[in-house]
Amino acid sequence: MSSIRKIFDLKAGVIGTGFIGPVHIEALRRIGVQVTAICGSGQAREVATQWGIPHVFTGYDFAKLVAAPDVDVVHITSPNRHHHRQALAALAAGKHVVCEKPLAMTTTQTAEIVAAAKASGKVFAVNYNVRFYPAVLQMRAMAQSGALGEIIHVNGSYMQDWLHKDTDYNWRVLASESGELRAVGDIGTHWLDTVSFILGSPVVELIADLSIFHRTRKRPVGEVQTFSNTAPEKTENCTVDTEDFASVLLTFANGARGNLSVSQVAAGRKNSIRIEVYGSKKSAWWCSEDPEMLHFGNRDGANETTIRATAAFGSGATGFMDYPPGHVEGFPDTFKMNFRNIYSAIVKGTEERLFASVSDGHQEVALCEAILRSHKSRSWTSL
Ligand SMILES: NC(=O)c1ccc[n+]([C@@H]2O[C@H](COP(=O)([O-])OP(=O)(O)OC[C@H]3O[C@@H](n4cnc5c(N)ncnc54)[C@H](O)[C@@H]3O)[C@@H](O)[C@H]2O)c1
Questions:
Q1: Closest-CA residue to 366 (of 121, 154, 110)
Q2: Which residue of 140, 159, 247, 297 is 20 to 30 Å from 346, comparing CA positions?
């Protein structure tokens, strides 16, 4: 109970007030952390009013936010190209950091952040929130206890459709804003991070194929928020230099093989991450479109479909669920549980750290670079 009281004492500042900034604010409120400051464009004032946040730094003035005395933890939810500068500034100001994925644009940048974070002694987390779906925690417990047997292979996908039309536009489609990989960097790294987390084993080798479906997109004149459904009044053509979809074959350090498909042009799939883990004793599979259900596959006996927080589901997510079975926990709850784990680590130091570390964030950007190298060379590539 004492750590919970200390979590209440911590104060957060959030940089970025677009789609995911308010998701951070809401999750922080749910664990009792005060959000004392936000930073963004002029729109930040509206967000501050909506959430009752006292300090607003407009004009993207993150230097003022990281220096604010009543900010202990800085959440970075700005577009990818700003993460490097803002993370280094927050660490230099002596703050703990929760940075959105991907950690930065290149491994040169992420290595610099890793070194600064290690030297600072502060907690630095990267927001790979998918780790905190209860079904993911349960699959991890079973993979790592041997309940699934030797892991033979992992199959899955991350599919979205919000960039399906050539009139769909976001800063992510430009390599200069989001990094050289887009579908893989934006959502594929969630799958890769989650599967390595489940297996307790990193990817060591891969071969990848990347494709662009819309080589030209219609770019609205002005800023567009992620997942916006409003048709822009004026557009201009822009050349797209990042992939719309990708296929990747993987080898993990433990010998398991993997097979990942990623797409942001998959009509009807709004935000669908699917993970299937096949072991020598049994298999386990789950999809975020039906987040409460975890399935077990058996060679001889009947297959099982289990419901979160029941005995049949298993106890691997104990401590990371707040609601009884049938009271659905989903995307926003993963942020809450991730932040509870991060803030507990800040106040207790010794709490089991299940959140993605700064080194995990670096690893995902290294994977993106290896995927691009493999695609260009049309060959298997080691990390
Ligand atoms: N973990 C997840 O599930 C998840 C989901 C969505 C986005 N993200 C990540 O969050 C980040 C933001 O994505 P989004 O979808 O919210 O984008 P968005 O475009 O909706 O919002 C970005 C916000 O950052 C602000 N901004 C732009 N430049 C800035 C600067 N220099 N300093 C401060 N703020 C600035 C914009 O005004 C806007 O408010 C990205 O890194 C993305 O990969 C993570």
A1: 110
A2: 140
Is the confidence at residue 335, as pLDDT, over 90? yes
CA of 21 to the centre of ligand 1 (A): 7
Cα–Cα dist 69/249, whole Å: 47
Report residue 1's pLDDT band, with 50, 70 and 90 as the boundaries. Answer: very low
The answer to whether the CB of 258 falls within 8 A of the CB of 191 is: no
pTM above 0.85, yes or no: yes
**CATH class of the 130-377 domain in this structure:** alpha beta
99 and 76 in contact (C-beta within 8 Å)? yes
Q: At a CB cut-off of 8 Å and minimum separation 6, what does 344 contact?
A: 3, 7, 351
Share of the chain above pLDDT 70, in %: 96
The contacts of residue 327 (CB under 8 Å, 6+ apart) are none
314 touches ligand 1 (CB under 6 Å) = no
**pLDDT on residue 290:** 98
Residue 224 Cα: closest atom of ligand 1: 19
Domain ranges of the chain: 2-122, 130-377
Neighbour count for residue 267 (Cβ, 10 Å): 9
The runs of H, that is alpha helices, within 10-56 are 20-30, 44-51
pLDDT digits (tens, 9 = 90+) for 153-171: 999 999 999 999 999 999 9
Q: Which of 14, 20, 181 to mutate to test ligand 1, by most ligand atoms within 8 A of the CB atom?
A: 20
For 60-90, b where at least 16 C-beta lie within 10 A, e where not — what string?
A: bebeebbbbeebbbbbbbbbbbbbbebbbbb
Question: Regarding the domain with residue range 2-122, which homologous superfamily does it belong to in the CATH classification?
Answer: NAD(P)-binding Rossmann-like Domain (3.40.50.720)
Residue 40 CA, ligand 1 centroid: distance in Å: 10
Among 23, 134, 5, 24, residue whose Cα is nearest residue 74:
24
